[in-house]
Amino acid sequence: MKTPKELKVKPIKNGTVIDHITANKALNVLKILKLPSKKSAVTIAMNVHSSQMGSKDIVKIEGRELKQREVDKIALIAPNATINIVRDYEIVEKGKVNLLDEINNILECPNPNCITNTNEPVKTKFYVIEKKPVTLRCYHCERIMNKEDIESDLY
Ligand code: CTP
Ligand code: ZN
């Protein structure tokens, strides 16, 4: 049993707890998830102490589980985030976001001349050429996307 001092934010009954979010990225995670919405109660903690990370953010969403595509977007901005699924106050599933070597069909290429920005039916594909800070290269036109390019595309 955690003491009140340790338990900074109230537990949720059903939904998702996104923990170990890179400090100060919680509001960007909400933008990716298109929250707040009328349906779900959301709790946010920012810059709370973490033994592993120094400081971190936490987002708790009542009554909603995440789609894989949303988890993959979160991995691009908060690579250490953990996704906890809660049912009836218990954690029933705990996973980590995973930044894969290829980002398929999630981001638009910033190069207006890229084939993915023409009327051709070609899906976007980027190689992750660096993880920290995350840097991508378009498979089709070799345009580099840095952290700022990625963030401006995501939100
Ligand atoms: N949590 C919650 N509501 C619940 C259960 C858990 O909001 N009903 C939150 C906790 O506050 C914590 C996160 O979910 O932020 C993960 O909970 P838990 O696995 O119990 O904590 P840790 O063991 O510290 O997590 P980790 O293994 O990810 O470090
Ligand atoms: Zn391109």
UniProtKB/TrEMBL annotation:
NCBIfam families recorded for this chain? ATCase_reg (TIGR00240)
GO biological process terms, semicolon-separated: 'de novo' pyrimidine nucleobase biosynthetic process; pyrimidine nucleotide biosynthetic process
GO cellular component terms, A-Z: aspartate carbamoyltransferase complex
What Pfam families does this protein's entry cite? PyrI, PyrI_C
Could you tell me which InterPro entries the record lists for this protein?
Answer: Asp_carbamoyltransf_reg_N (IPR020545), Asp_carbamoylTrfase_reg (IPR002801), Asp_carbamoyltrfase_reg_C (IPR020542), Asp_carbatrfase_reg_C_sf (IPR036792), Asp_carbatrfase_reg_N_sf (IPR036793)
Recite the UniProt keywords alphabetically. Metal-binding, Pyrimidine biosynthesis, Zinc
Record text on cofactor binding = Binds 1 zinc ion per subunit.
Q: Tell me which residues make up the Aspartate carbamoyltransferase regulatory subunit C-terminal domain.
A: 102-150
Essential cofactor(s):
Zn(2+)
Residues at which Zn(2+) binds: 109, 114, 138, 141
The Swiss-Prot or TrEMBL record describes its family as follows: Belongs to the PyrI family.
Q: What is this protein called?
A: Aspartate carbamoyltransferase regulatory chain
Q: What is the annotated quaternary arrangement, including any partners?
A: Contains catalytic and regulatory chains.
- Aspartate carbamoyltransferase regulatory subunit N-terminal domain ranges (all copies): 7-97
Q: What does this protein do?
A: Involved in allosteric regulation of aspartate carbamoyltransferase.
Gene3D superfamilies, per database record: Aspartate carbamoyltransferase regulatory subunit, C-terminal domain (2.30.30.20), Aspartate carbamoyltransferase regulatory subunit, N-terminal domain (3.30.70.140)
User: Could you cite one Gene Ontology molecular function of this protein?
Assistant: transferase activity
